[in-house]
Amino acid sequence: MHYRIAVLPGDGIGPEVIREAVRVLEAVAGATGVRFTFAEAPIGGAAVDATGDPFPPETEALCLEADAILLGAVGGPRWDREPPARRPEAGLLRLRKAVGAFANLRPVRLHPRLAGRGPLRPEVVGTGVDVLIVRELTGGLYYGERGREPGPGGERAYDTMTYTTEEIERIVRMAFRLARQRRGRVTSVDKSNVLETSRLWRQVTERVATEFPDVQVEHLYVDNAAMQLVRNPGRFDVLVTENTFGDILSDLGAALAGSIGLLPSASLGSEGRPPLFEPVHGSAPDIAGRGIANPIGAIASAALLLRHACGLEREARAVEQAIDDVLAEGLLTPDLSGPGVPVAGTEDIGRAVARRARELLAPEPLEATGDGRSGEAGDGVAVAWIADAYGFRPVVLEAAGSEMAVPADGARGPVGDPIPVREEPATATTAAPGRAEQEAPSARRATGNRARVRKGA
What we know:
The protein is of the alpha/beta class. The protein contains 14 helices and 16 strands. Helix content is 35%, strand content 19%.
């Protein structure tokens, strides 16, 4: 089996956490024989800096040719003054539209090791939380007509929320199908006491519910749903709602899990178009480059990729179990660790999950290779990652088992990687004028083509 993955590191901590997600996918490949081809491209603010466009045509073409898309994060204060069309978030909205992603799945699960570490008391979260938030992704306020116009009281701004019966039917029907695979309960969230779109939402949901007599359904107003999520999260199984409400409620889910850095997401849509997988968190520019970002949301998104894009349920469960095992061992990034608790870095977590996932999947015990760190058992990414204009790229290994090629800046990688990296030229994007002068000399020497292709075993 061979799958093509478009990797969009994005901005801020995006490259750091996506690197660890790729590491885990390559560990899965090394243990199972599945092949992944990873091709990297810019999006968001990094793409604005490189090309002037937050979603360049080259990136869109790469994504549409892939079997799945793995995204880091977009945005940051440095682009806050860009016009709306050049804002990093505009690139993300265009990506979702390009792949026809109408359903955003955001699982919220409390790991037993983390009970009591979030803002909710242990007696509130009980023995665990397991909620799947299904958010409609292509309608509502985010895609409706908007604008500003002069008026007698000054400027008037407006955003329009619209929904069609078809848009509601397809997302609600997906929620009911997912509930059949879980605990058989759907909570539909609206504001039908005020909004006409919500009244249509409730009517359509009630009609679709008749197709699933084995699934229980309830309706909650969005304000009550928010309160119930923090008062009694165990009552929820699958929660389905429109775009804006889903955006807010799924971030509230971070309070249930203990940190927004833990939460993954999958955006599914039109048949024949690649699904999109990304952590729920933002770009967190204040901690970017410090090696302390929590990569579990990105790694769990890779598990969703295995499940929904590749149909590899066993492999997806192994990655999720590996995450649980690593957390149970007490490896925690600063967002989760308490006073006096040792802190693990981004890379520490990624290597530990990759190693454990490979141990769960491999047919026989693995022996450590290399320097005991970058080439240790279960770690399929024994390469040096060089900062590029928009993310990261691997340094090419000359041959399996040989010493890594030394880049012009003298950086070296470990010896003995069982998974050599082969690089092929892919569609190039053109840097914006003056960009090369802004890069460090070592980055300019190492950059090469803007899109890189990377193959796992």
